[in-house]
Each structure stands twice: as structure tokens, then as C-alpha cells.
Amino acid sequence: MKTGKPEILSEMNKKLILDCLRKNGPQSRADIKRELGLSFPTVSSNVKALIESELIFENGISDNSMGKKGTLLEFNSKKGFVLGIDMGRSHIRMIICDISGNIICSSVSDQYTQQATQGVLHQIDDEFEKILKMGNITKSDLRYISIGIPGIVDELEGKHRLAPFMEPFKDIRLDLYMKDKYNINTVCGNSVDFGAIGEKWRGAGQQYQNIIYINYSIGLGCALILNGELYCGANGAAGEVGYMLPGTQFERDVYDEEGVMEKLVAGLELERRMITQKGLPYSSIKELFEHEDDKNFMGKEMISEIKIHIALMLVNLVSIINPQVIIIGGGIGKQLAIKYADYFEKYLSLHVPYVPHIVPTKLDEKANLLGAVAYALRYIHKDYASLEIIKKH
């Protein structure tokens, strides 16, 4: 319809100008005109509207040596904020970033345990209030909450799934809980997927377009970045390598939410076996790796078992995905990537034609948090109009 065209074009041009300033830094009106190929009246009118809405502001004078000096325009990163949450079995981590992704503050609570559902929700609420106070942020300043969880959100069943170590999550939808309670846009995704996004954004995957990201600690998870984008699969369950079957001898008669591979090598299962295994003086995986170089080390068999199962898993993944790099994180995974990258690359070279780089995570525990933030920022940068409802201070 003709009546709608000017408004649509104006919104498109505003988005182009905002993205230009966000990605390139301060620019003059003339810089924006040259960069985007827009007419000067178009730039001027839209810049005026964006300044009035506080999405951009004037900040200094350009330093060009020839011609008239121009006033520099800057994207207002403080127009809104995003809260990222990483839910783990033994922690709740949170981070607040502005809408350019700059970190304002972060926190971690190590008191989280396998308690009742209401206990988990109360603790989330407490940590939420604490980090807002820490960052001097109000609820009305938040544009999005982005929550990473073990497992997936099953939209058809309306619940969280595939998180066998997180019993309280089976009875709640964290995204709906936070959205209903605080009236803030909330998204929820797999924490390993967010880890992959975080490493692609600011970590070890920045220069790659095809990435396998593995998080190996209490559980075993994997995420795939294909052609620069997260690949989730039909049900959001792509990368659930814990369900891989390493051989027919491990076939099951009944489905279990804890997959065969996860049962074999997940940190929680390994530590359960370590406690009952005679003659093994180590009570945790961390302790096992710490003593690996001891003269009379007694965990060689367990280390060898871990290595071969992970090597087999990598062969199967690489033969399907053909990635440029495999980034391995998590308490156990990072140790394997640091100590045994050569072992895995040699093993891969015997079984697949193209061997990717194998590197440890660069962001460690912040990968999931930054990935959660990046995931939410994509929604914001697609719809800047939603930022204009923020209250003026």
C-alpha cells in the first residue's frame, strides 16, 4: 500500500544508520551518506529522529583535514541492557551487558544445588535482584533476559527436556517464569549452543565459519556452527552427542534420557565409578588429571578410556560436519584439548580426509554467558523500535 511505504522506508533507513554506527563507531552525517549511499536529506531527517529517541547522540567533531568539520554521531549503547543467565548443576552465573555487548557486571552463585523447583526459582530471583543492584540497573532498563540451560526447550511439550542431571527443570519453563514475573522479553536456549555462539563471537572461533564446539564436564554436550550460523536441528536437539552409540555392544532395550555416550564418559558418571573402583585413590576428575604426571599414577586406564571414547566421537562428528575447528571446553574437555590435541588430530588423520584444528576454549565459563547475550542482541538489532519505549531518565 502506498500509504505504508514512506514509514517502512524510514524504519529501514533508521536501522541502516544504527547498524552503521554500531559496527563502525562514530561517524559524521557525511560519512553515513557515503557509507550507505543515502541522500543527504534522508540521512539528516532520520538522524534527527534517532537523536530525539536517544538511540544516537552527537559526540565530538570529525578530524578530517579538508573541508568542513562534521559533528560525529555515536550509537547509544546505554539505551538498554541484556541479562545473560547460565544455569548449571552447581552454579547460577549472570552477566549484564549493554546493547553493544560491553560487559557491565557479572556474578556467580556456587550455592545452587539439586533442590526443589521453588527453591531454584527463589535463588534465581535473589541473584537477579543482586546483579541489578551491582550494575545499578533497573528492571525497566533491561530489554531482554537470555537463559542458557542444560537440555532444550521442547515447544510442543511445553517443557525443558534432555537434562537428566537437572531434575528441577522438568517441572518449569524458566523463560515463561521470568517473562511473566518481570514483564521482560525472555528467551531460553541450550547452554552449549550459547557456548558455541560465545566462542564464535569473542573467543576461539572468531575466524571460522564451520565449528564444532564441545563442552565436557559433568555432562557431555556439543553444538554446531555451520556457515557462520548455529544449527539446531528439527527439534533443537542437534549436537546431543551424549546419545551417540559407540558400538553394538552398548545397544539398549529401553530409552533413557541419559544417553549411552554420556553414561560412559560424563564427569558425573566417571566420579561415581571412581568412588567405587578399588585401588583408585582419586575422588574427582580434577584430582585425576592433577596426578596424571605422577610416577605411580594409578588412573592410566581411566584416562585411556576417556581418550578413546572422545576420539571415536570426534571421528564420527568430523566425517559428517567437516569443520574447520573443534573447540573443546568444560572442566574435563579443556584438559583434554590442552594435553591431547596432538593425539586426537593424529587419530583423526587415520580415519578422515580433512583434519580440523583442535583448540581449547578461550572464554571458559564466560562462553555460555556471552553467547546468551549475543543471542538476545540479535533480536534487539533486528527491531530497534522496541528500544524507544525505554523510560527517559
Provide mean pLDDT, rounded.
87
Query: How much of the residues is beta strand, in percent?
Result: 15-25%
CATH topology of the largest domain: Nucleotidyltransferase, domain 5
Our Rg estimate from Cα atoms comes to: 24 Å
| CATH superfamily membership of the largest domain | ATPase, nucleotide binding domain
Going by helix content, strand content and strand pairing, the class is alpha/beta
**SS summary, helix count:** 12
* Number of separate domains: 3
Give keywords.
single chain; 393 residues; alpha/beta; Arc Repressor Mutant, subunit A; Nucleotidyltransferase, domain 5; 5-stranded mixed β-sheet; disordered C terminus
List the helices and strands and how they pair.
Elements: H1 5-24, E1 27-28, H2 29-36, H3 40-52, E2 56-61, E3 71-75, E4 81-87, E5 92-98, E6 103-109, H4 117-135, E7 142-149, E8 152-154, E9 159-161, H5 174-182, E10 186-190, H6 191-202, E11 211-216, E12 220-226, E13 229-231, H7 260-265, H8 267-276, H9 285-290, H10 300-321, E14 325-329, H11 331-349, E15 357-360, H12 366-382
Parallel strand pairs: 4-7, 7-10, 11-14, 14-15
Antiparallel strand pairs: 1-3, 2-3, 4-5, 5-6, 8-9, 11-12, 12-13
Helix pairs in contact: 1-3, 2-3, 6-12, 10-11
